[in-house]
Amino acid sequence: MTELRTGGRILLDNLVAQGCDRIFHVPGESFLAVLDALHDMPQVDLVTCRQEGGAAFMACADGAITGRPGICFVTRGPGATNASIGVHVAMQDSQPMILFVGDVDRGMRDREGFQEVDLPAMFAPLAKWATRIEDAARIPEYVARAWSVATSGRPGPVVIALPEDMLCDRVAAVDRPRIERLTGELGKAAYDAVFECLRSAERPVAIVGGAGWSRSTAGAFNAFARNWGIPVAGAFRRQDALPNHSPVWAGNLGYGPNPKLVERIKSADLLLVVGARLGEATTDGYSLITPDHPGQTLIHVHPDANELNRVYRADIPVCAGVYEFADMLACADHPEQPRPDAAEAHAEWLEWSTPKPRNGVMLDLGMCVGAMRELMPGDTLICNGAGNFSGWWHRYWHYGVQPSQLAPTAGAMGYGVPAAVAAALRAPDRQVVAVAGDGDFLMNGQELATAVQHGANLIVIVVDNGAYGTIRMHQEREFPARLSGTTLHNPDFAALARAFGCWAGTVERTEDFAPALGRALNKSGVRLLHLKTDVEVITAATTITAIRNR
Questions:
Q1: First to last CA, the chain
Q2: Whole-model pTM over 0.90
Q3: Do 5-171 and 188-350 have matching folds?
Q4: Least crowded by CB within 10 Å, which of 406, 412, 466, 525?
Q5: pLDDT by residue (tens digit) across 288-318?
C-alpha cells in the first residue's frame, strides 16, 4: 500500500527529487504544512528572509547561478504582492524560478477572505506559467511540469498557488523522476546558411548572453570567436558572457557603452546574436539595431522559438540551445588566420575600461573600481541593483568566468544585496560584492540580517550621493535645475550596518578607499563600506553642471 503523506511533504519530496537543495522564504500561516515537513528534511537549506521581495530576488539570483529554478515560498496577499517584483525580474532576465504562494482554503475561495487574491490571474502577465494545485495527489505532476517550464526554451518563473487545506491533506501520490532540460537541434540547412554568412561577411560582430548561457557556452563561443577573429559584445548586463580578458571581448551594450563599440555595431554587415533577446536596453530603444536592420544580416539564435521574429526580423532564425550552437561553431572548420577585427575591438575596450582620474572629485568612483580590480580576485561576483552608480562597475570592472555578474536587466532597484546573499551562500569559496546606491540599498537593506543570520561572507559597497541619481539625471535633462522629489536624507549607513552585526567603514576620499577595502578583505562575515560621493558627479561620463549647460 502506498504511504499516505501530507501535501506539504509530497511537495518537498518532489522538489528534492528535481534537485532542490535550498529554499528562500518568509514564513506564513498559509504554508505551515510545508514548514512542518521541512523540520524532518535537513538536506534542504531553509533561508529565512526579512521581506518577500528580498526572498524572491534571492531565488531569482540562485537560479541564475545554478541554472536550476530558484525556489521561494511566501504567503498570500501581501506576501505575494511583495514577491511579485522577483517574478518580474526573473521573467525579463530569463532566469529559472518557482514561487510557491500559500493560498486560502479551497472552501473559502471567492469570498474575499483574509488576504485573498486570485493568484493565477495576478501572476499570469508576469510569469511563464501561473497555476493553482487543487488536489494533493497531483502535486508531483505540477512540480515536474513547473520545473520543465521554468528551465526549457527561454527560462523563466513559474508561480504556483497552494491552498492551505490542500497542503494538510494526507493522500497517496506517485512521485515523478527528475526532469532534464530539453534543447533544440540545429538542422543542416540552418547550419549551412550560418557558415555561408560567416565566410562571406566583411564586418561581423557577435552579441551574446541571455537565455541558457553557461560557463560551458562561454568556453565554446570564445574558442569559435578567437578562431574567426570576430568581436564579441555582451548584451545589457550580460558582461560575464565571456571572461573579459578574452582577446575577442569588445565590451558591453546597454546604457553608456563605448562609442567605438556603438560605431562597430552600426557598421557591421553581419550580426550574430546568440542567447540575447535584443531588448530595449541592449539596442538603445531599438535604434542601435532596428527591428528591420537594413543593410545588415541578422542571425538570431535562441532556445525559444517564440522569441525568434518576435520583434526583430531574422534573416536566419535558429531555434537551438545556445551551448549546442556554440559547440557546433567551435568544432567546425575555421579560417587559417583570424580577422584582425577582434583584437582591434578588444584594444578599444581596454582603453575605454581603464579608469582615469577626474579632476576636482573628492571620491572618484572610477579609481575605486580600479583599486578593486587590483585587490580582489578575477572571479569576484559583482551584484547590483539599478541606478547610475552601477555604471562605474559596468564600465571599469573586468568580469571573470560566468557567473560573475548578477544584475537585473529589468532595472529593478533593491536587487543587489539579496542577490549577494544568495551568491555568498551558493558559492562560499568566491568573493561576493554587492554594490548599491543609497536609494537602491534601502529598498532591501534589511536582508543584511538574513546574511548575518545564515553566516554569509560578502562585502557591501553603498554609494551615497543623497539622491535618486538616475531620476535626478533625467530630471536635469528635461527640466534643468527644477528639483522635485529626488533628494534623499540618508542614515549613517556604516552605523546601520554595525547595528545588524556587520563590520563597517566610511570612505569620503579616493585615497582612503583602497586601505578601507583592504581592511574589509582581511575580515570575514558581512562587511559594509559607506562611500560618500557628490551628486554633481552624476555618471561616469558627465556632471549635473554639464547636463544643465547642454
A1: 79
A2: yes
A3: yes
A4: 525
A5: 999 999 999 999 999 999 999 999 999 999 9
